[in-house]
Predict the structure.
Amino acid sequence: MTRFGLGGKQASGDQKVSWIHEADFTSAIQFLMDQNLEGVFNLCVPQPTDNKTLMQSLRQVLKVPFGISHPIWLLKVGAFFIGTETELVTKSRNVHPEKLLQHGFTFKFIKIKNALEDLLKK
């Protein structure tokens, strides 16, 4: 939808988005197995982005000059029609990989724009 100009921020755009590149995800899984680590580990980059930055980066990478923002009322209408909750978009997911970093894992992609550019090449 971003390619069609619908890649604007959702609601305020300030909500945190925790993410991880697929290469870092697979490397983290391999790291956990190689180190024989057990327990709960958050697999996400150390610095979550926000919705506004995510959408802006996506537009830049796709070379889309604009993105129409989605106010909360429009998100509620869309959520109603697909049978879900708006909080999936409007609530922050501010997760940090503390245990993973404490054990020495290093990320290849920590900036959302770099990750998106790499994924677009594939």
